[in-house]
Amino acid sequence: MAIKILSVDDEQDLEILLTQYFRRKIKKGEYEFSFAHNGLEALQMILANPDYDIILSDINMPEMDGLTLLTKINELRNPAMKCIMVSAYGDMENIRIAMNRGAFDFTTKPINLEDMERTIEKAVEQIQFIKNAQQEHTQLKSIQSDLNVTREIQQTILPKKFPPYPELTSFDIYASMSAAKYVGGDFYDFFRIDNDRLGFVVADVSGKGVPAAIFMAISRTVVRAIAQTENSAAKCMQRANDILCQESVNDMFVTVFYGILNINTGVVTYCNAGHNPPIWIDRGGEVSPLPLTHDLVLAAMEDKQYHEKEIILNPGDSLFLYTDGVTEANNLAGELYGDNRLLENCKTYTGLSPREIVSSITHSVSTFAMGAVQSDDITLLAIRYNG
Hints:
The protein contains 11 helices and 15 strands. By secondary structure, it is an alpha/beta fold. It folds into 2 domains: 3-136, Rossmann fold; 159-385, 4-Layer Sandwich (Phosphatase 2c, domain 1). A 5-stranded parallel sheet has the order 2-1-3-4-5, with helices on both faces. Strands 6-15-14-11-12 form a 5-stranded antiparallel sheet. A hairpin with a 4-residue loop joins strand 7 (186-192) and strand 8 (197-205).
């Protein structure tokens, strides 16, 4: 696009001089000149067309002088509009005032057109830099807005109503997800499979940010859809893996713990696809990680067999599921929160409700981090069997 230049001077000859000297750039569409003959006329033109890039303004003019015009232009707060002041060499006091008021540069009369051309070119460089920065800022604001919407959508698809099934008293459940960035790759989920069984999931997609968030949404949808019709935790993971292998890009994968609780008996069958082992907090105060099923993460390799194990929760027992954002949280000294610290803390959570367990772990990790930047998504889910 042409650089738009407004020349403001009460000398009529300057219009002919500029259009003749810059005729090649004007013909090529690089420069576009407009002319005003005093500051008031120029201000009216600027207000009507605020897209001028360069104002070449004489200082001494009738009706409104160049210094007043410069002040009015500054009030428009357009950093991409540059003012080059023109005055007699002996008028250095006013030129100095103009520079102090924010003029980009100056040139003196009689005008040296080669010097003016270099001054304009220098202004053009600054204008292009500012316009590029403004465009990038606009793009960043648009991206920021999109991220905010994406964050809201992501939070919306995660269950937020607690207790989710107030009519059922045989179990209690609570969960939370805190993304390291605006959006994350972790997710939790739970759903009724039938009258007797509850499915519950915690998962962690590789990577962070928008790509992980998109794959997170895909993974959650696939797992939930299959779980509604598949009685086996292992077969659910096997079918989900085959589908996600087709959807994965850039070698993305997802670790998943999927459990099925019989809400009448306390029996839990589960499959652990490369995820952190949940912690079993029994009513007697003992804590232990659930045994692994030694299965591969989802979306890494097709046609893999998955396995499941079974435990029986007694009334008062709880399971605590989490992502590695907990154990890999670091403090300002670079120390990790770690598995042992988590296990030791869980020993003190016997008898707490799922909401209290999640809140206690969240507080413990936050206190440990002591202001260090959260480096990974943190997702927590606790479920207690009441019998």
